[in-house]
Each structure stands twice: as C-alpha cells, then as structure tokens.
UniProtKB/TrEMBL annotation:
Residues 248-352 form the Disease resistance R13L4/SHOC-2-like LRR domain. Coiled coil: none annotated. Keywords: Glycoprotein, Leucine-rich repeat, Membrane, Repeat, Signal. The lineage of its organism: Eukaryota, Viridiplantae, Streptophyta, Embryophyta, Tracheophyta. Residues 133-171 form the Leucine-rich repeat-containing N-terminal plant-type domain. InterPro entries: Leu-rich_rpt, LRR-RLK, LRR_dom_sf, LRR_N_plant-typ, LRR_R13L4/SHOC2-like, SH3_Tf2-1. This is Leucine-rich repeat-containing N-terminal plant-type domain-containing protein. It is found in: Membrane.
Length: 457
C-alpha cells in the first residue's frame, strides 16, 4: 500500500497486509490494523505490490509519522484526478490534490486524509459522495444506462462532476436525490447507499430490483420521497416499516409482489402525503390507523386481494385527502356517510367491489367511479352541485329512479356511464348542451337517441 516521502512524492509502500478477498476484477480487500481504520479497506490492484521479504524497501506503518499540518502548507482547492488507478480517499486511502501554489501530485495516506476531512470538508464530501455513486454503479454491474457516471478526465472539468449527472440532484454540492427509473437495475439495494447522508429522494421505479423490502433504507434518516414501484419486491411489508425516516412524505410501492397485511406502522408517518400500494398481492387487511395520516392527500390501495372488509370510518378523518382509490379490493358494507366530510376529495374510485346501500352526497369531486357494486336507491340530487365533475361512472349497480336534471347541466361533465341499472324516466334534454360530453352509455334506447340529438344540436 503506497505512502509518501519528501517533496517529490516518491511512492513507497507499507505492510504487509493480508488479502481477505477479491472484489471484482481489479480490486482486493485487505486486513488493515485499527490504527488505519479510517482508510477504506478495498484497493485497486495498481496500488498494491506483491510482498517480497526484503526490508530495504518496506516501510513499517507503525513507524509512519505525519505532522499535524501534514508537512506542507499549501491549501488544496480541487480534487485533481480520480482515474481508475486512483479511486479516492474513501476507496483507496489516497487522494490527488492540486495545491494553490503548485500542481504537485501528492498521495495522501491515513493521517493526511483525516486532516483534509477535518479542514476542508466540502472537498472531501464531494469526493466521498462521488465514490459512493461509483460504488453503486459497480454494485449494479455497471448498467449501460448510467455509463456516463465516470470521474472527470481533466482537473478543471465540471462535465463529469456527479452533480451534473442527470440522475443526480444536489443541494449545496451535496447529493440529495437519486432518480433512476427504468435503468434495468436488477440487483438489490446496498446498505452503503445511506452513506449519502443528505439523501432525501430515492426514485427507483420501473426496474427489476428483487428481494424483500429493503430495510437498509432505514438508515437514510433524511428521506422524504421513496418510490420503489414496478419492481420485483416480494414478501411482507415489514411491521417496523415506520423505522424509515419520520420525514417521509411519499411512499410508493405499487406494482410489486408484496403479500400479507398492510402493517399498523404505516399509520405513524405523520408527514406522509402520498401512499400508493395498489397492484400488489396484498391478501390480508388494511389498518384503520391509516386514518391517522392527517396530512395524506393521495391514498391508492386498488387491485389487491384483501380480506373482505368495510371501509374504515377513520378514513373519513383524512380531511386533506384529494384522491381515494380502492377499486377491485374486496370491499363490503356501505360507503360511510361521513365521506362527505372530505371537503378536499376530488377523485373517488371504489369500483368493482361488493359495496351495498345508498350513495352518499359529495362536495367537491371531479371523478366518481362507483361502478360494479350493489348500490341501490337513487342517484343523489346533490351531484348536480358538483360543478367540477367530469366523470360519473355508476354502471352495473341496482340504482333506480330518474336521472337528476341538474346533472345534465354540469359544465365540466365529459363522460357518463349509467348502464345496467334500474333507472326509469326520460333522459334530461340538456345533456351535451352545457358541456362537451364525449360519452354517455345507458341501456335504454330513448336515452341514446336524445343524447345524440343533444350532441348534434
């Protein structure tokens, strides 16, 4: 392992150290003593030399001393190079720096690296984070989609600075976001990802990441946005999932193969705005504690094989909720009357379940889909007050009575589906006159004729 001596930086080596394992094609993990524990234990082969029992060219690390000022006064201003043969302070225990006075290359070992980290944290932080990203790339077997993740080739070039990589978001020169959707990643998420200490956004949607829920992300203490949708995760959502960051605002796990219950711990993310768990294999129950998520704006549980259960009344406490989707999820019982208390609710989709009873009044909705249930009685006249309503789907229920005339005058209405009910009477003549109606489906022939006439006129 190399060290320095004098102003001309001749390379000398300390050791010997035992090789523990081979890492990839060109690196080895060494058994380093505690005195140099701050040096990463993986070294590129070009930084190693085969041990020959000749003390004339071996410098014992126990006798290595570096002054407090690291024996030179120049202040480093930029990482000069991080080529493959010199990966950085973090990976190899060395860094190549350019001083403010000269361009002399200096190999900084152990103590010097610690001094640099203490005195110039912004430089070392940038180098450290880039190395973590390059390790991620290597861990994922160098997918072609991020082949541009490479160290800069020239000292003063910013073209390859990791903060300029399109998948990386930086704030104050520190990595805060990883956005890697559809990058053909097919390997697990490594624990060292949370060495990016300021990470707030992880978006790994639409990949092939396998295995159970990645509990390694519990160590990302500043995480606010986690999107693992459309991958190959399996098993249960952990009962201690609330060990994720308490700052979490978005949790998207849709399109995976999670099974079992939604754990009670989900209800402890008090900052959560978005919870998307649809299109999984969840076959247990979902907890009423979801109603404790007072800041929740989007709740999507659709397309799961839940046990037969009613909509918890606690869900109507979600006063900031804008979107509620629980279609095709084995719901039974009645829709809570208090759902009308959700004054911010814009989209309601409870279709293809086994709901019974009457349709409650709504206040602000733009999309209502209650189709393919067993709802009865009449269409609420209050629906005629929903001036923002664009989609009304009530087909395949047991609804009776007439269609309220006020619905036909709604200015935003685009699509109406009422077929396969027990509706009677005539179609209100104003359908298609007050809005650009694109579709109207009902099984009664007079209804079809009058809609066509209204659209033509």
């Amino acid at each position: 392992m190399p060290t320095v001596e004098g102003d001309r930086c001749p390379l000398r080596f300390i050791g010997p150290f035992e090789i523990l394992e081979r890492i990839g094609e060109v690196a080895y993990r060494l058994a380093l003593p505690p005195q140099v524990s701050e040096v990463h234990d993986v070294f590129h082969i070009c930084m190693l030399r085969k041990y020959e029992p000749d003390p004339s060219h071996v410098l014992d690390w126990t006798e290595l001393e570096v002054d407090e000022d690291a024996s030179y006064e120049e202040r480093p201003v930029i990482v000069l190079d991080t080529r493959d043969q010199v990966l950085s302070v973090k990976l190899l225990g060395i860094g190549i720096l350019r001083s403010s006075k000269t361009l002399c290359f200096r190999a900084v070992l152990a103590r010097v690296a610690l001094i640099a980290l203490e005195r110039w944290p912004s430089i070392c932080k940038t180098t450290r984070e880039q190395i973590i990203l390059l390790r991620l790339k290597q861990h994922w077997y160098n997918p072609p989609s991020i082949s541009h993740w490479t160290p800069p080739k020239f000292p003063d070039s910013n073209s390859s600075t990791h903060c300029n990589w399109p998948e990386i978001t930086c704030t104050n020169d520190s990595v805060t976001g990883l956005s890697l959707p559809n990058k053909t990643i097919a390997v697990t998420i490594p624990q060292f990802i949370c060495d990016l200490k300021n990470l707030t956004v992880i978006d790994f949607q639409y990949n092939y990441i396998p295995g159970p829920f990645p509990t390694v992300l519990y160590n990302c203490s500043k995480l606010k946005h986690l999107d693992l949708s459309l991958n190959f995760f399996i098993g249960r959502i952990p009962g201690d999932v609330d060990r994720l960051s308490t700052r979490l605002r978005v949790l998207n796990l849709n399109g995976n193969n999670f099974t079992g219950d939604i754990p009670l711990a989900i209800g402890r993310f008090h900052e959560l705005r978005v919870l998307r768990l649809f299109q999984n294999e969840l076959n247990g129950s979902f907890p009423p504690e979801i109603g404790n998520l007072s800041n929740l704006e989007m709740l999507e549980l659709s397309d799961n094989a839940f046990l037969l259960m009613a909509i918890p009344s606690s869900f109507t406490q979600l006063r900031k909720l804008k979107q509620l989707w629980i279609k095709d999820s084995s719901l039974i019982g009645e829709i809570p009357v208090t759902i009308g208390n959700l004054t911010e609710l814009e989209e309601l989709d409870l279709s293809n379940n086994k709901l019974t009873g009457t349709i409650p009044s709504a206040l602000k909705m733009q999309i209502i889909d209650l189709s393919q249930n067993n709802l009865n009685e009449t269409i609420p006249a209050d629906f005629g007050k929903l001036t923002m309503l664009s989609v009304l789907a009530l087909f395949e229920n047991q609804l009776s009575g007439e269609i309220p005339e006020t619905i036909s005058r709604l200015p935003s209405l685009r699509d109406v589906k009422l077929f396969n009910n027990n509706l009677s009477g005539t179609l209100p003549p104003d359908f298609g006159r007050y809005s650009k109606l694109r579709g109207f489906r009902n099984t009664l022939e007079p209804f079809h004729w009058q809609v066509a006439r209204a659209l033509v006129c």
